[in-house]
Each structure stands twice: as structure tokens, then as C-alpha cells.
Amino acid sequence: MRLAVGAAFRAMSAVQGRPRGLVYEKHGEPAQVLQLKDINLPEMGASGVHVRMLAAPVNPSDINMIQGSYAVLPDLPAVGGNEGVGLVVQIGSNVTSLKPGDLVIPADAGLGTWQTEAVFGEEKLLKMPPDIPLMCAATLSVNPCTAFRMLSDFKTLKPGDSVIQNAANSGVGQAVIQIAAAKGLKTINVVRDRPNLQELVDRLKSLGADHVLTEEALRKPEVKDLFQEIPKPLLALNGVGGKSATEMLRLLQHKGTMVTYGGMSKQPVTVPVSALIFKDVKLCGFWMTQWKRDNAQNKEELNGMITDLCTLIRKGQLTAPACQEVPLVDYQLALKASMAPYVSAKQILLM
Amino acid sequence: MRLAVGAAFRAMSAVQGRPRGLVYEKHGEPAQVLQLKDINLPEMGASGVHVRMLAAPVNPSDINMIQGSYAVLPDLPAVGGNEGVGLVVQIGSNVTSLKPGDLVIPADAGLGTWQTEAVFGEEKLLKMPPDIPLMCAATLSVNPCTAFRMLSDFKTLKPGDSVIQNAANSGVGQAVIQIAAAKGLKTINVVRDRPNLQELVDRLKSLGADHVLTEEALRKPEVKDLFQEIPKPLLALNGVGGKSATEMLRLLQHKGTMVTYGGMSKQPVTVPVSALIFKDVKLCGFWMTQWKRDNAQNKEELNGMITDLCTLIRKGQLTAPACQEVPLVDYQLALKASMAPYVSAKQILLM
Fold first, then answer.
1. Residue A250 buriedness (CB in 10 A; 0-12 / 13-18 / 19+)
2. What is the mean pLDDT of chain B?
């Protein structure tokens, strides 16, 4: 789905009646606590921006935030969703960086993107170039940014170096494969075994994955054969935790680093003392929300990253994840699909 | 025990007969595989240094090396011991940095210090100032150096900042307490509960420990009361692993670092994923042997550290750990004591 600004404006004509949003008044299971209802927009004021939301994905962290198990929680009642793309409808008199017709994405978490219209502060928005496909824009601000930073900020990697990651089929994982390939890095991608494994392997390879293997294969001694072709990884990206993380540590190069950005197994990371002392591996974490806050005063880094990612998108080196577009009214279907195992497609709410 | 050079020379007159050393021909339990026997010294050559060993401690890593479970192992047969102090007797014609009468300590691990005499390469030795007490010199090159580097290389700490460590009664632990106190840092020191706990608490406090508590107390909610007096630690030093390490992680400040240098519990370090992602803690390891190898070409850093540590010793801010001096012939007693639980005194073999 690709909307030029003109088409996006025409889409706006479909907006009828009052703004609506997916609101929760208490934490709990999203299917139970979320309700689609009319919302009152705040006054726009001099520095506000009135945005018509176009599309917003359902990410695992959105679910955790509604469940109340996330590290930052909004004041309640709140609108769900942390990512998405919208169109600027109107701007306050002090707003200088945006104008009506601009495509925008959130510059911070917690804005509440699952609503048809919203008023955000200018500083909470980033302008997107108009030629970026809408699904790319809607899914850019969390996962590709996380992948970009993890591949840039922890190790100096040169073409030919290798990176290992688990959860390779996640939104972050797919972005890691593509950004790494664009940098000339080799990727070793770990996925859970599943029906139609070969289909997934083929899809990840078509994105640029060099090696795709299951958690079980990762534990076998033959995994070492890989390292006749490529060097041992200097960087491991961990979205799973538990045994999967420990196995990746085992394959890391001397002085390698493992960056943890997720814990889908709900298991902690267990690190042999010898890996720390004698192999000199480092463990750290990455959280895009924190990075954005740490860089909130000076948006140069953030804008530079968005520019670089848009360049990759234009070259066809970074695509949106497989998306399932779901009208906002059918949000229950989207929630259900986003929480089902082995569903590769990202659920995108269309406003 | 303090020996000036003159006294040390006189001590040499006690050397009689052939050089002897504690030799092992295969890995195993030290009490079984070590034998005190005559050894043949290699030719001194132009760059060799003939050393009369004076005193050498029994460290946990010496035991592990003999057991065969250490990360680096010498060719067999080998002489045990990695640390100690000796007196230069004779030098090769190309040796410029040392002269007969100099006190020396090892600049690298694996030299084999449990022998009455030895020939080492000049580059393997560091000159010690003659006014440093012998027990300080004998125990300087591993534990105080480890403590010094861990307090310097991982976090920028300013007076008033706090550091938490377990194994606070170990050789490294006691050095951490003293070096941290000299830097104006506050220390939280975790020890295992034991008979005569108060005696240990008093001793560590006399070294400069601000707070001493047991593993059990560390797990209680009241531990938080500490942080009304001092800030949460930015740095945790882990010589134990297992639950003890996890508890220290829990108390670390946001963006704090835990450095692992030992694993006395023989348990891995378990890290909650949330600590990595949301608290942004880092985990890394430190191994003095590796540091010395990384800095082998340029001894400036190493010599600078030794100079700084000697300054602390002269000011009375760094003392040798409680030592039990044991004649070399009674090495079986020293081995037994060094492996017994709750023995605080370091066993020092006198040659």
C-alpha cells in the first residue's frame, strides 16, 4: 500500500463524525480492556499538531503496555499503540518544522497511535519524506530503528564480519537481516522450528539472510561448520533470552558483545562465568524508548538515522515486514492474530 | 615481615644445595600431584635473570591451574604458583632494567613461582621498590592489580559514589575495600555468614569497608535502607556468581556495570532481561592475566599501576591480606588451609 500526499488527502475525506480510538481504562488482557470509542481531542494550542492517523501496527510492546507489564506505563485512561504514521491536518501558530500535508511518525513512545485523529506536540513527531511507502513509514520508528542502532552502537563492524541473532523472524529480526546485508555483514539467523520451516527460511534468505537455523540446530556440534565459511560473530542480538541466548554466547567471538532487546521466552539470560572472565564477552541491553529520550534534546542523530533508513527503503534494501492490514473496527482480529504463535505477518490497523 | 635488601641478601645465605620446586607432572588434586623435588634451572642466556624466590602465595587460580580447570594451562611437567616475590641474583649480559639485589615480581601468569630459584626472561619481571614489605610484594601482582583495574577501567567514579562487591573477604575483596576507601568511594561488602561473623565485619571495617552484610541480609527488603545514606552502586564486582551476583544486579544503579572476575559458587550469572533492557545494566568480565598480555608490549600502564599501588602501601592505605607464612617443605599444610572454607588468611610459602 503506497499513498502519495494527494491520495492521502483524499483518504481523509472518508473521515466522518468524531475522532475514535482504542481506549483502555485499566490494565489487563487487551481483548478485554480495549474499547473502540469516541474521544475528545485536546486543544491544539500554539505548539500542537493535529494529525489524521493513517495506519498503526500492533507490536508486542503495545500488548505488554496494555497488560501493565511494560517498563513505562501511561496515565489511564489511555489510547493504545506506540507506532504508526499520520498526516498533518493543521498546525499551531508556533509550529515551524511541519506543515499540513506532511507525513509524520512518532518521535517518542507512549503517544497512543490507535486513534483516527490526534493532537500531538510538534517535538513528539518526525517528518517522513512523502515517497516512503505507508507500511514502511508505519513500522519504521521502533523495529528498524532498534536494528539500526544495535548494528551501529555496540561494535565496530566491517564488511565480512558476522552477526548472530535469535527471533530472526521478528520485526527487529527482519530489519537486522536487511540492514546487515546492506552493510555487507554476514548474518546467522536463529528461528524456532515450526510447520513450513523451509518457507520461512526461504523468505528470510530472500531478505538477505546468509544462514538460517533452528534453536535445535544451534545446539548441535555441527553448527561449528558454519565458521569454516564465515568468522565467528562479534555481535549477538538477543530478543529471546533463556537457552537461546546462552547458545548464542557460546558461539560469540572472543571479546564479542551480546545486546538484549527482548525476552520472548520470558526466561532470564544465563551467562557462564568463564565466558565473562576468559572469553571477555560483554552483555548489555538496548531499548529504543530510552535511546529516544536520551537523544530528545538534539534530534540530529534521530533525523540522521531516519534519513539513512529512508535511503535503504528507496534502494529496496529495507522493506516493511509482511503486513496484514486490518480496519480499525476489526481490532479484535488484529489483537488475536498478533498474539498467536508463529504468525509472521505484522497486524496493521488502518484508521 | 619486612626485609630490606641487605637482610634479603643475608637470607640468601640460607640457600643450600640444589634448587627445589613444587612440580606436577599431571593435572589433579594438588595434594596428590604436587611433589617437592630438585629442579634443573635452564641456562640464563643473555636476556635471562637468575632469581632467588623469597615468598609466594597460594591463590585459588593456582589450585585451578594444577587441577587442570583453568583457562590457561602450562606445558607439563610444570612448577606451581603464579605470584610471588624474588631477589635478583645474577643477570644476562643484555639485561638493562634489573640488577642483582633488585626485588622482582612476575609481570605475567604461569611463571611457576613455587621454587627456591628460577631463571626468567627479563620481560617477565617487574622491579619492586626495596621499601615495600615482602608480604605486600608477594601478593601484589594479582589481587591488588585486579582490584585497581576494576575500580579504574569500567566506570568513571567520583568520591562519594558507591561500589558493591561480594567475596569481600577474598584477596581481591580486601584490596577493593582499601583502594576504594583511598579514592573516597563507599563500599558495600557482601560476605558469607559464618561463625565469628562480627570479627570479620570488624576486620573489613578496619580496612575501610563502609558496609558489610551477609548474602542473606542482601536479599532482605531492608537492604534498601542503605540507600538513604549512600547512592546506589554504579559498579558491582562479582567474584561469586549465582544468586549472589543476581542480588547485586538488583541493587545496581540505572546504567550500572557488573564486572565478574571469579565464580567461587561455581554457578553462572543469571540476568533478568528487564535489567538489561530497561535498567541498561552492563555485564563484563576481568582477567588480570589477559590484561597483562594485552599490555605486554607497552609496560607503561603496568608500571604506572605498580607505582600507584606502592604509593598506597607506603601511606598505609593498602596492606597485605592476613597471611599465614608456611615453610616450603610444609606445602601440604598450606594447600590444605588454602582450600578449607572460611579460612581468611592467605597461605604464603616461604622459600
1. middle
2. 92
